[in-house]
Amino acid sequence: MDLATLWFWIVAALFVGYFVLDGFDFGVGMSLPFLSKDDTDRRVLINTIGPVWDLNETWVIVAGAALFAAFPEWYATLFSGFYLALLLILLALIVRGVSFEYRHQRPEVEWKARFDWMIIIGSAVPALLWGVAFANIVQGVPLDEGHNYTGTLLDLLNPYALLGGLTTLLLFFTHGVVFVSLKTDGEIRERARKLAVRSGLITIVVAASFLVWTGFAFGTAWFWGFAAVAALCLIGSWLMNARGAEGWSFGLMAVTIGTAVLALFSALFPDVMPASNDPANSLTIANASSSDYTLTIMSWTALIFLPLVLAYQGWTYWIFRKRLTREHIPAAAH
């Protein structure tokens, strides 16, 4: 395996980390109107991700930086062609981050309600648009001879891409609700478990539809292998949640999301940005990558620093592993 191919899969792994970790963040944010009965419930939900949400978001920064350094042509085409969609994702992430920090600054109900909706919308928009973006990348978009995107934002909102967006939205929502059941106790935990049972069934149907469509249109042997693992783990996660085994359910959901992302990258390989109008205009691993010298330096840097990042993040999750209840929320705090 040459360095360009290696970095294609490293980028895939970085997006796996981002979607698995920030995915349940999005799900928790979207679950606020479904799982909370009052402000204390909402504070419990927000506190489940309070210590880790910003750390989870750094994965998309690392993934974007790796994409820029390893595949500058891919980065340029993607970020110029999908500019408005990615800008909406960025604005949603900013709104969500601001909401976490400012929600508790004033005691008024109206003040908190505004920021609660900002958290909900700031979680739902990226969850939807990331799926739309990756579905379009796999499907291919119109490119000219200079690898510039020649379509519009509306062209990206095609049926296949919207199904991909709905799939990631539901996957992240269910992933987040399962995380709530894993991190809380009492009534919230029970409400989260029941909600995950209902949302999980819908997720299974929608995700299966998207994977089958992708498989028949763009599938490879590796795609079908990863897709099969994702499907089995998604069903297993639903069954474990129904039995009250939240830890197993959350772990299997993480594997579901991870293998689904790898399935999409397998369907894409060896292209990185297929041209739907003319295959000759497609970006591939070979014509979009940086020099071997650049990739060699990046490889050594990743080998040194990535284990440190993983160790630190694992330690953070271990420190904040305990369940939360309404009793953990001080009555006088706002």
Automatic annotation (TrEMBL):
<feature type="transmembrane region" description="Helical">
    <location>
        <begin position="115"/>
        <end position="139"/>
    </location>
</feature>
<protein>
    <submittedName>
        <fullName>Cytochrome c oxidase assembly protein</fullName>
    </submittedName>
</protein>
<dbReference type="GO" id="GO:0005886">
    <property type="term" value="C:plasma membrane"/>
</dbReference>
<keyword id="KW-1133">Transmembrane helix</keyword>
<dbReference type="GO" id="GO:0070069">
    <property type="term" value="C:cytochrome complex"/>
</dbReference>
<keyword id="KW-0479">Metal-binding</keyword>
<keyword id="KW-0812">Transmembrane</keyword>
<dbReference type="GO" id="GO:0046872">
    <property type="term" value="F:metal ion binding"/>
</dbReference>
<keyword id="KW-1003">Cell membrane</keyword>
<keyword id="KW-0349">Heme</keyword>
<feature type="transmembrane region" description="Helical">
    <location>
        <begin position="297"/>
        <end position="320"/>
    </location>
</feature>
<dbReference type="Pfam" id="PF02322">
    <property type="entry name" value="Cyt_bd_oxida_II"/>
</dbReference>
<feature type="transmembrane region" description="Helical">
    <location>
        <begin position="6"/>
        <end position="32"/>
    </location>
</feature>
<dbReference type="InterPro" id="IPR003317">
    <property type="entry name" value="Cyt-d_oxidase_su2"/>
</dbReference>
<feature type="transmembrane region" description="Helical">
    <location>
        <begin position="222"/>
        <end position="240"/>
    </location>
</feature>
<dbReference type="GO" id="GO:0009055">
    <property type="term" value="F:electron transfer activity"/>
</dbReference>
<feature type="transmembrane region" description="Helical">
    <location>
        <begin position="74"/>
        <end position="95"/>
    </location>
</feature>
<feature type="transmembrane region" description="Helical">
    <location>
        <begin position="159"/>
        <end position="183"/>
    </location>
</feature>
<keyword id="KW-0813">Transport</keyword>
<comment type="similarity">
    <text>Belongs to the cytochrome ubiquinol oxidase subunit 2 family.</text>
</comment>
<feature type="transmembrane region" description="Helical">
    <location>
        <begin position="195"/>
        <end position="216"/>
    </location>
</feature>
<keyword id="KW-0408">Iron</keyword>
<keyword id="KW-0249">Electron transport</keyword>
<keyword id="KW-0472">Membrane</keyword>
<dbReference type="GO" id="GO:0019646">
    <property type="term" value="P:aerobic electron transport chain"/>
</dbReference>
<feature type="transmembrane region" description="Helical">
    <location>
        <begin position="247"/>
        <end position="269"/>
    </location>
</feature>
<dbReference type="GO" id="GO:0016682">
    <property type="term" value="F:oxidoreductase activity, acting on diphenols and related substances as donors, oxygen as acceptor"/>
</dbReference>
